[in-house]
Amino acid sequence: MRTQPLPDFVSADVDLAGRTTLALPGRAAYVAEVSSCRQLAQLASLRSARRFVLGGGSNVVLSGDFDGLLLQMAIAGRELLAEDADAWYVRAGAGESWHQLVLWTLACGWPGLENLALIPGTVGAAPIQNIGAYGLELADRFQSLEAFDVERGRLLQLDRAACRFAYRDSVFKQQGWHLDGSHVVTSVSLRLPKDWRPLTGYADLAAELDHRRLARPDALQIADAVIAVRNRKLPDPATVPNAGSFFQNPLVSAELGGRLRRDFPELPCHVQPDGRIKIAAGWLIEQAGWKGRDLGRVGMYEKQALVLVNRGGARGSEVMALARAVQDAVRQRFAVELSPEPVLL
C-alpha cells in the first residue's frame, strides 16, 4: 500500500486498544474509516496482505498487531423502506449502532426487535454471526442486505437464503468473508411483522416480566425487561473490558442432551426444531468451577460465567489461555465442546 498515496480516510499505524471492547493491546498497519460505498470502491485498487472488517469491536480478540488493512465501518443512515398490510420494512447502514436501531424501531411503533435490545456492536456485524437472544435471531426478522465485493468492485444484494443463516453462523463465516474482508456489509434491511407476538419464554426474561407484574407486556416493556436483565448480568465494557458472551450455547445431539438432562435435571436447555438440544454455556462453565475465577489478568465474570473479562493489562494470549482452560474443564465434566463467539485477530 506504500507504493501509492493513501486515500484521506485511511490512516497508518493505528492503536487498536480503544477500538475493541476487550481493550487488548495491538496496532494496525492501516485503518480505513469507511462511511460510503464509494470509499470501498477506492479501496478495491489497494493491495494489502490482509483485510479485516471491524464494527463496534465487541466480538474481537486481538492477538497482537494487525499487519494489514482494517476496515472500520461507519456507514450511517436508517429509514422506513416500505410498508404493506403485513409488515414494516426498514433499512440501516452498516455503521449504525444495533441497539440504537432497536430503540428507533420501537419508538416508531414497529415492534419485532425488542428481544435483541442492548446487544453490542453495529448493524453491519449483526448478520455475520446471526445475532440472537431470548428466543429471537436476526434471521427471524431479516429481509436482505447489501454487501460490497471488494475484489470485483461491485455491490451485491443477498436475501435470506443467500445468507445461509444458522445458529451464530452465516455465509460470511462459512466462506471466511468476515476474516479476509473480501465482502463488506454496507446495509441491512429487516422485515417487522404487523402480526406481532411477544416472545417471553426464556427463564430470565419471564422472571423479570413476572417481577414487574406484566402478564401481557408490549414490545417496549419487553425491551425494558431485556435491558434490565442484560445490565444485571453483563458488565459495562467502559469499566470492565469484555466481549459479552464469550462462548456459544452448544448444540448437542438428542442422545447426549437426554443423558445430560437425566444426570443434571436443573440444566437449562431448549429442544431445537431439528431435535438437537441447545444447552446454556454459562451454566456449564459455572458448574465446572469457573464463574468468578481468574487466570492471571483475565477471568470469567462473577455475575455471569459466560462473560470473559479483562481485569486490566491483559493480552490476547492470556484471553485464549483462559478460554482453553474453560473449554477443557467443561469437556472433562460434561463431554461438551464450547466454541468461542469472538474472532481471534
Word description of this protein:
There is one protein chain. Strand 10 (142-149) and strand 11 form a beta hairpin. The protein has helices at 37-43, 98-107, 160-163, 171-174, 177-180, 203-211, 219-233, 254-263, 281-287, 316-334, and strands spanning 10-15, 27-34, 51-54, 60-61, 66-73, 78-83, 87-93, 132-133, 136-137, 142-149, 154-159, 183-193, 242-245, 251-252, 269-271, 277-279, 294-295, 298-300, 307-310, 343-344. With 345 residues, it is an alpha+beta fold. The mean pLDDT is 91. 26% of the residues lie in helices and 27% in strands. The two termini are 20 Å apart. The strands form six sheets. A five-stranded antiparallel β-sheet has the order 6-7-12-10-11. Helix 6 (203-211) packs across helix 7 (219-233).
Question: What order do the helices and strands come in, and which of them pair?
Answer:
Layout: E1 10-15, E2 27-34, H1 37-43, E3 51-54, E4 60-61, E5 66-73, E6 78-83, E7 87-93, H2 98-107, E8 132-133, E9 136-137, E10 142-149, E11 154-159, H3 160-163, H4 171-174, H5 177-180, E12 183-193, H6 203-211, H7 219-233, E13 242-245, E14 251-252, H8 254-263, E15 269-271, E16 277-279, H9 281-287, E17 294-295, E18 298-300, E19 307-310, H10 316-334, E20 343-344
Parallel strand pairs: 2-5, 3-5, 4-20
Antiparallel strand pairs: 1-2, 6-7, 7-12, 8-9, 10-11, 10-12, 13-19, 14-16, 15-16, 17-18, 18-19
Helix pairs in contact: 6-7
